[in-house]
Amino acid sequence: MTLEERVNWQRIAYIVESYELVGTDGETFDAYLAEMISSHAMPIMELAFAETILDVWTVVPLPRGVLFLEHANNILQDWSEKGFSSRLTPDDFKQITGLDPAPIIHALRSPTPQAPVL
Q1: Integer Cα distance of 88 and 54 in angstroms
Q2: Least confident of 23-32, 50-59, 68-77, 104-113
Q3: Measured between alpha carbons, how far is 84 from 32 in angstroms, rounded to an integer?
Q4: The pTM is what?
């Protein structure tokens, strides 16, 4: 694993831990998350996680576990099929996640198949 991959993984882990997203799903959550990571660029996943948190913010209790990942995965699939569209500004992303939005912005501007161009 490269340094960049480790940093990206730590950023995902930080969001998961901050919002206690594993819930009671444990190994099932970990397997689903690993599958998502193998299919999507991690910076784009971070943004999908922030979008999911925004979507479910008013739901009590906050959806966690596989239910949370399914919602995030649906967002990623929509972006793949319909084109990228985020409601979050860089400041919104930082407020929700506590993370620097620069890697997300960079990923969105990179002309790769996994990262749509803004």
Answers
A1: 9
A2: 104-113
A3: 22
A4: 0.89
